[in-house]
Amino acid sequence: MDYKKLGLKCGIEIHQQLEGKKLFCNCPTKLRDDQHNFEIRRKLRAVAGEHGDIDVAAQQEQLRDKTFIYQGYDDTTCLVETDSEPPHQINEEALYTSLQFCKLVNADISPVVQVMRKTVVDGSNTSGFQRTALIARGGYINTSEGKVGIVNISLEEDACKIISEDIKEKVYCLDKLGIPLIEIGTAPDIKSPEQCLETSKRLGMLLRSLSGVKRGLGTIRQDVNVSIAGGTRIEFKGVQELRMIPTIVELEVKRQIELLKIKEELRNLRLNGLNIVDLSVLLNDCDSKVIKKTIEKNGKILGIKLHGFNGLIGRELQPNYRLGTEFAGRAKIKAGVGGIFHSDELPNYGIEEKEIKRIRKKLNCTPDDAFVLVADNENKAKIALTAVHERAKELFLGIPKEVRKDQVDGTSRYMRPMPGAARMYPETDVPLIFPDTKEIKLPEVLEEKIERYQKDFSLSVDLANFVAKSDKVKLFEELVEKYPKIKAAFIAETLTSTTLDIKRKYELDPGKLTEDNFRELFLYLSQDKIHKDIILDVLIDMIKGIFDIKKYESLSTEELHKTIKKIVEENKDAPFGALMGICMKKLAGKASGKIISENIKKILREGHK
């Protein structure tokens, strides 16, 4: 596609979690999966922003009327997270880290920072709002396709971690709520899918250059905004797979092109008013499993006509994604139904031609008209069909502003309407902040760090990249400085690739290894209490919680040789493999297989002379 001709514009919002304590209290930022100590239950409602209007996205969430359940811990959750106590002073370390980033991208830091409340009533914040503070504007980064401006850099609190959800309730954990986030929003300067990916990588690299950021899966997420000429800005929430960004952009461009074509085709048509008709009696003998199950549960099969839509609902907007999928997405989100039936996909799913004729007649459909059915309880079915009719009306206007969620194949699904400025109002519990930028020191940029690791420590390009981008980078530098006699490459491999091998080969969780475990490991290694070749065994025992240095303390070379020689003499006729087995059992953890093998071979050679 000619993206310049299409007028493609993209922008990225990046959210990066920070280490340490939470933004407005002293609770740790550690995520937990053990049994919680308490639960609280809440209902949330939308309130007017500082201009007196209620945000449309907040209104949609309130209409779902869900009960929110929050799980917490006595030792790592406080009254701030349950919204039972005002926020404490802002986390100074998090503020410093955000100011460092502002300096890296040459942004204009605000002399006065006002914390704001952003209305969020999907339950992800116990208070019904998220605290956010605009720190700076006007920075930029360079890409191979030109400069990309940065519109805003904010410091805000992360939302709760979702545990489960059904029609009536949504369960959250409070451990993630309040973790500091740096939010960066770029200008719509990105003009191609590839530049979108490059921008995201560049921003991620700069963020990972900061010592105060969290590392690992789920600690950074991207929101991607896409529009074309004649289209509308669409936001993709929480894109995790960087490599999928070009595909997401490309497929959204295709969706907008197809929707604009449909708008043009509808130019001379007028949509009929909403008229929901009960079709249950007509489908009593239908073979459809969904319809049979609905009737058994005293549900209803309701339908609406869409004038002039025959053939349009089956139109493909993205690969395996049709206009009917778009309608179904609205119905699922707004009413909680399982899906819809529409005339462009029938006869199918147990609905036959004879039943289609009866439906068309009941709905007064002409050959140019389409229809949509929903099978569920009456109230939900009505809400679903109303949502479908609303989406059909929007086709006449173009492309509605909305937030969407990317799927594994790069296609997307509707989440909610695009929120507006009506959800913002000042936070009165946090005093104004006057950032001190005089003492802000710029960190070593990740690219420079990788080059230094190659030059100073003789690491390969891949290993330098691996360790510099890992969450063990500080520990690596500490250990390299403390143990100069141990090769830096060996330390790097132990902290990174060795732990990955443990996960892949032995299906153990290397996340259980603490920094103190590694410090202990290299201390014993420097003292010659353990062999380098058996580090894998040591780490496995540490993960299992059964590590004991007495088991691993090395024998002297002389003692080792003496022990192996005795075993060989006691088993003179045993083959090499058997001798290895006996020695390994006797010397478990005290010598590597390689050293034992070499000693046996040496002793056998001496015996043959």
Topology:
Layout: H1 3-6, E1 9-17, E2 38-42, H2 56-63, E3 67-72, H3 92-104, E4 108-109, E5 115-119, E6 129-137, E7 139-143, E8 146-157, E9 161-165, E10 169-173, E11 180-186, H4 193-207, E12 220-227, E13 234-239, H5 245-265, E14 277-278, H6 289-296, E15 300-306, E16 316-318, E17 321-322, H7 323-335, E18 341-342, H8 353-362, E19 370-376, H9 378-395, E20 402-406, E21 412-417, E22 424-426, H10 446-457, H11 461-468, H12 473-482, H13 488-495, H14 497-506, H15 515-526, H16 535-544, H17 549-552, H18 557-570, H19 576-586, H20 593-608
Parallel strand pairs: 3-10, 13-20
Antiparallel strand pairs: 1-11, 1-12, 2-3, 4-6, 5-6, 5-22, 6-8, 7-8, 8-11, 9-10, 12-13, 14-15, 15-19, 16-17, 18-19, 20-21
Helix pairs in contact: 4-5, 7-9, 10-11, 18-20, 19-20
Strand content: 15-25%
The whole-angstrom Rg is 31 Å
The averaged pLDDT comes out at: 91
Tell me how many strands there are.
22
**Total DSSP helices:** 20
**Broad structural category:** alpha+beta
- Could you give the distance between the termini? 78 Å
- Fraction in helix: 25-40%
Low-confidence stretches: none
Into how many domains do the coordinates divide? 4
Instruction: Summarize the biggest pleated sheet.
Output: 12 strands, mixed
